[in-house]
Amino acid sequence: MDFGLNFFPVFTPDHKSASQFYREAIALSQIAEEYGFEHVQTVEHYGTPYGGYSPDPVTLLSAIAARTKTIRVATGAVIPAFSHPLQLASKLAMLDNISEGRLDVGFGRAWLPQEFEWLGVSIDESRRRFSEGIEACRRLWTEENVVFEGEFHSFGPVTLSPRPYQQSGPPVFVASASSPESCAAAGQAGYHLQIVPTIVSPETVVEMLTAYRKGWADAGHRAGAARIQLKYNCYLSDDRDEALRRGEEMENNHVVLMSQAAEGWLRKSSDQYKGYDKLVDKAREYDFGKALSDGRILAGNTDDVVRQLDATREKYSDDLCVSIQVNSGYTDFRESERTLRLFAEQVAPRFRPAAR
What we know:
Organism: Streptomyces musisoli
Pfam family, one: Bac_luciferase
InterPro entries: Bact_Lucif_Oxidored, Luciferase-like_dom, Luciferase-like_sf
Number of helices: 12
Order of helices and strands: EHEHEHEHHEEEHEHEHHHEHEH
Protein name: LLM class flavin-dependent oxidoreductase
Domain Luciferase-like: 1-314
Oligomer: single chain
């Protein structure tokens, strides 16, 4: 099991300024690198406190790449539906060069109706735009004089400039919310996988991972080469009661702001997003204690979190990279740094190969 750091900003301006959050993200990334974390990643969202402080992962990751040397930088995820593929492939190739080949690219479909409305994109086209965008980016990274004829974009002949630093282009991840079918398709295509266990049941995560691994194996991809990232919010302290109290407070903030962002589903439906009309009700029913007992968050003292990760490994296997969030913007920097250092010094070593 390996470890990464992820940033999903979920806060309002009365808690922290944007510039302060970005400074903290860069500083925490440098600390994560000191401790040998595998990656740092961030999201793409627009216009609301739920993720909206990260409208362009490439910008923040470029700043992080310029201040680090070894840690990988990952999009978790960029949204092909919201960009022309030539623009998206170009700026990702630029980041790959700035980081000297440390880029991993996670692609996602997006799921908030208002983002599609604001950007003038039909939400019913999201899956097709997603698939087309990945195909176009991969071709632009690996081919010259590309002529692309898609449903939504046609261009060329064009040779991308700059070319990616990584000769075969950045590794591609697919961010999947809850669908075993999309996980199976990602495995068949030879893509890596990003999952957020917080938003689905452990049983669903097992189904998703099983479908992904079967798709990978059935397609004949190299055994052991698949990379799987699981993303968790992490609340850690020497004082268990403090960690649980703060964890519940921050999770409730997350749920409130997510519920507000998801209210677009009360006015919208799409056969591309079955069940999303129930998201607001599900969020309002959120229970911190149940999420903790289900293993959907990491919280407590170091012994607690070690036990939680042991359970994660038993349920899902240990060929995983656990990506922890320690600063959603709702926390102050000292608390985030303490959590990160405690995790790196007292939790992560228990799961690294040398510790087995």
